[in-house]
Design a protein that fits this description.
Layout: H1 2-19, E1 24-25, E2 28-29, E3 31-34, E4 39-42, E5 45-48, H2 53-73, H3 76-81, H4 83-96, H5 104-124, H6 130-137, H7 142-161, H8 164-168, H9 171-178, E6 186-189, H10 200-204, H11 224-233, E7 242-245, H12 251-272, E8 277-283, E9 292-301, E10 307-314, E11 317-320, E12 324-327, E13 332-341, E14 347-354, E15 357-364
Helix pairs in contact: 1-4, 2-12, 5-7
Length: 366
């Protein structure tokens, strides 16, 4: 019953996590952090390093949303959405598909090594353009070291440690338990509903728990014990000894849901307030002759259209340097210009124009 739904969730999540770096939107990966350019490619747009407050706001929203879901549905993250759970499940499916025989152990190790290498390659593609990943791997540099370390970590989790991390030191599991109350949705055992004593619920538990002894922190709510109990007792949904117990609709759920919704609205407002063009001007420490100031400017295009920008200055000044700036979609450019004072003035106004867009920046003139 539940296993079918979990496998569907795992396949969808695995497809998303694997495909995002390779899915192109506006000529770039749908999701990739460009370390060299200090920018995040995010579904066709670009978030620059000085705009990472947007990423922080997004992370806060996801944390609050996870907390709200945990209050209502318990450890649905651990058993259904956690990337480590997905890795372990996919690795288990691959290993179970190997042929029985004397060489089964060798084949299993080979399959897991290949799986770990594929997972590591995907992880690298979140930081390096996929078209360059293979070339950089052969260069025996930082990318190669990252590939080896990540692959070894994935292999250790899938082949050696398994669910021991979930049972012992997983911080997410511990933090989620803090949010639990008496009405949180958990998997519980009801001995008065015709338990047969077959212990199938214990045998299928991936973390080695005996649900008959009560709900434990280590439980990941995977529902394997529910399916096993249903198959053993033949009971209808909700009538067999092991099942989901709890109450979703309650004040605590609505409170956490409202907080998560509010943080989502704040994120939307921050994104909508993002300007189409960012323009900054600073006075350069390196100055020219008397009556001449040097300035550095930086322009970023936050849209997916090519822009032709015109730079000018208002006031009693003469602009010395390039006055036109061409920017590709999500491109950036910086440069230096000079101002010569035609008469005494303390403030200069730089004006950047791009069609109907007009941006002013006031700077001091000394």
């Amino acid at each position: 019953m539940w296993r079918r739904y979990r496998r569907t969730a795992f396949v969808l999540q695995a497809a998303a996590l694997t495909g995002l770096p390779f899915l192109e939107m506006n000529g770039e990966s749908a999701l990739r952090f460009d370390i060299a350019g200090l920018k995040l490619h995010f579904f066709g747009t670009v978030i620059w390093m000085n705009e990472f407050h947007l990423v922080l706001a997004g992370c806060i929203f996801l944390v609050l949303l996870t907390a709200a879901v945990t209050v209502a549905f318990g450890k649905v993250w651990c058993g259904w959405l956690c990337p480590q759970t997905v890795l372990l499940e996919l690795a288990g499916w691959l290993v179970n598909g190997t042929s029985p025989g004397r060489r089964r152990v060798v084949v299993e190790k080979a399959v897991l090594m290949f799986f770990s290498a594929a997972a590591s390659f995907t992880a690298i593609s979140y930081f390096v353009p996929p078209s360059e990943t293979a070339e950089r791997l052969s260069a025996a540099g930082t990318v190669t070291a990252f590939f080896v370390v990540t692959g070894a970590a994935v292999y250790a989790v899938t082949a050696l440690f398994g669910r021991s991390f979930c049972r012992s030191v997983c911080p997410c599991s511990m933090l989620q338990s803090v949010l639990f109350d008496g009405d949180t949705m958990v998997i519980a055992y009801a001995p008065d509903r015709g338990c047969t004593g077959c212990k199938r619920c214990v045998k299928v538990c991936p973390v080695g728990l005996d649900i008959r002894k009560g709900t434990a922190r280590e439980c990941i709510a995977c529902a394997e014990c529910i399916d096993a109990c249903a198959a053993s007792t033949g009971g209808r949904d909700g009538m067999f000894p092991v099942g989901y117990r709890g109450r979703v609709k309650r004040p605590k759920t609505f409170l956490f849901g409202a907080v998560a919704l509010l943080s989502g609205l704040v994120l939307i407002l921050l994104v909508s307030a993002r300007p189409a063009v960012d323009f900054t001007v600073t006075r350069d420490a390196l100055q020219g002759a008397e009556g001449v100031n040097s300035y550095r400017y930086s322009v970023r295009n936050n849209g997916n259209e090519r822009l032709r920008l015109s730079l000018s200055v208002e006031g009693p000044f003469e602009l010395i340097g390039a006055a036109d700036v061409a920017l590709e979609p999500y491109g950036a450019r910086s440069g230096r210009v000079m101002l010569r004072a035609l008469r005494r003035a303390r403030t200069a106004v730089f004006v950047l124009r791009a069609g109907r867009v007009r941006i002013e920046r006031r700077v001091a003139f000394l």
